[in-house]
Amino acid sequence: MHRLFIAALVCFISVSVFGQTPFPSGSKILCLGDSRVQGSETYDSYRYELWKDLIDCDWNFDLVGTESDPILYPSYQNNIFDPNHQGIGGQTTYDVLSELPYVLSDIGIVDIVLICIGGNDALNEGSSSIPDAIENISSIIELLQSDNPQVLILIEQIAPGLNSMMTTDLTQALQTLNIGIEQLADNQTTITSNVIAVDMSYEWQDSYLADDVHYNSTGAEIVATRYTDVLKTIYQCNSVNSILDFQKENSIVNTVNLLGRKVNHTTNQILFHIYDDGSVEKNFIVE
Q1: N or C: which terminus of the chain has fewer CB atoms within 10 Å of its end residue's CB?
Q2: Quick one: 85 and 177 in the same domain?
């Protein structure tokens, strides 16, 4: 269901979890960030699992970037994995901001950007690095929107590392960073360009990690699913659309947020509508 109201300069869009907007065929998707995006032979990137999820939705897309994954992944539904990306180990927010103009000039206009950055800022300098990191991320968003005013940007609220390596200062740094990312998403969403914070830290566990900070296969799949779930709130996923008709026959009895708390404010956050038959529908509303 779509609802679009324009008053003054406010645009209000309501999109079901099963998204009513057809996925733009041929969309270029840029996975941007550090080693968690890059992956390696000893730890996993979410990109392969994301690629499979997008294929499951029957979306026509192109993963882009100046980097190419050398790892050979199994084919999926007769498709060969697209290895292009823009994840570079050790990158900070400053590094990404400095290199992004050259990347965009090389790959052209991108339609969807998935950003995972800021973890190395926190690891290198702790809480003192976060104000500059947030400013750099803001500039990254501005640059992407300048390159394509209709770009969709999903930006991770960073998942922590192993509990054993999370010092008090590092924990505070990530908390401050993630709050800042959520605020940036609210402030830098425009009428034509949605910026959405995707909380990867929610209920994160040590068992999702291959080492101190990088994903194992389970962690990679969880991150990919969280990205895909947000994309499904916007675009039609052909594998699940049939569920909509079933849910229309039922009534909502409660609405809660990701933490299971009842909510009054229903914009700029993921919500779960609980129906009288026990089924659950997830919605994302952008204002």
Answers
A1: N
A2: yes
